[in-house]
Specification:
single chain; 246 residues; mainly alpha; Arc Repressor Mutant, subunit A; Four Helix Bundle (Hemerythrin (Met), subunit A); 2 domains; 3-stranded antiparallel sheet; 11 helices; elongated
Length: 246
C-alpha cells in the first residue's frame, strides 16, 4: 500500500534461539501477507540469500518457503534467472469471485431476514470506523474493516463458517482488492457500497441487499480493467472487459 515500503525495507528482529522451522513458518506468513497486500508487487525480485540474512535462517528453510509460495501461485522461480513475485492469476481471481458471489449473495438474503436492531447498530458502528479510515487514506486499515464487515454479515446470516471457506480461496482476488484500494476515489466508492448494503439489511430488504452485494462484489472486475491499464504486467494474461451488473 502507499505509505508502506516493501517488507524487505525493514529487517525483522532475529531470535537466534528460535527453531529454524518456526523461523521458516514466520517468513512464509510474512511474505505471503506482503504479496497479498501488494507491499511486494508482481515482478519484484526476491533474493534467497538476502532473506536468509534478514531472518537469520539458513538457505535450506528459505528455499522451502519459496517452494511453498510457488505452489501457492504467489512466487515464480525462473531457473538461472531468479525468483520473482508472480503476476496475478486471472483465472483464480474469476473462480474465487464466482465462489464469493454465489455464497455471499445467498448469505446476505438470510441476513436481511434475520438481522436484529442491535446487529444493525453494530454494522453502523463498523461504517463509522470505516469512514475514519477513508478520511485518513488508511487503505490497509480499511481492508481489514472490509473483511470484518463481510464476516459479520455471514455470521448474522447464520453461516459463520462460510466466511472461512471464502477466505481460503480468495488469495489472488485479495491482491486485486488491495491494489484497487490504493486509489482514494475507489476507497470512497467501496465505503458507500457498504453503506448501501447495511441500509438494505436494516430495512429487511432481502432482494435489495442481494443486488447491492452483487454490485459491490463485481467491482473487482472493474478494478482489474483499471489496474491493467496502468500495470498490464501485473497480470498473467491480458484482462478482458466484463459486463457490469444492471
Amino acid at each position: 500500500m502507499r505509505g508502506n515500503g516493501p517488507a524487505k525495507a525493514d529487517a525483522p528482529r532475529v531470535d537466534r534461539f528460535e527453531p529454524a522451522r518456526a523461523k521458516g513458518n514466520r517468513l512464509y506468513d510474512r511474505l505471503r501477507a506482503d504479496i497479498l497486500a501488494a507491499r511486494l508487487r508482481p515482478g519484484e525480485t526476491l533474493s534467497e540469500t538476502r532473506l536468509a540474512e534478514q531472518h537469520g535462517i539458513s538457505r535450506t528453510p528459505v528455499r522451502e518457503v519459496v517452494q511453498r509460495l510457488a505452489q501457492d501461485g504467489l512466487i515464480r522461480v525462473v531457473p538461472q534467472v531468479g525468483t520473482f513475485v508472480a503476476p496475478i492469476n486471472l483465472s483464480a481471481v474469476i473462480d474465487s469471485q464466482f465462489i464469493r458471489e454465489a455464497l455471499e449473495c445467498h448469505a446476505v438474503r438470510h441476513a436481511a431476514d434475520r438481522i436484529t436492531a442491535l446487529q444493525v447498530r453494530a454494522l453502523q458502528r463498523q461504517l463509522t470506523e470505516q469512514a475514519r479510515r477513508v478520511a485518513a487514506s488508511d487503505h490497509a486499515g480499511f481492508f481489514t474493516l472490509d473483511e470484518r464487515m463481510h464476516q459479520t454479515i455471514a455470521t448474522i446470516a447464520g453461516h459463520a463458517a462460510v466466511w472461512d471457506l471464502i477466505a481460503s480461496v480468495k488469495a489472488q482476488l485479495d491482491r486485486v482488492r488491495h491494489l484497487s484500494l490504493e486509489d482514494d476515489d475507489w476507497l470512497t466508492m467501496i465505503f458507500h457500497q457498504h453503506g448501501d448494503i447495511v441500509a438494505r439489511l436494516g430495512a429487511h430488504d432481502a432482494a435489495g441487499a442481494e443486488h447491492a452485494m452483487q454490485r459491490h462484489l463485481r467491482t473487482a472486475f472493474a478494478a482489474i480493467d483499471r489496474i491493467a491499464t496502468r500495470h498490464a504486467d501485473f497480470f498473467e494474461t491480458a484482462p478482458h472487459p466484463r459486463r457490469e451488473v444492471a
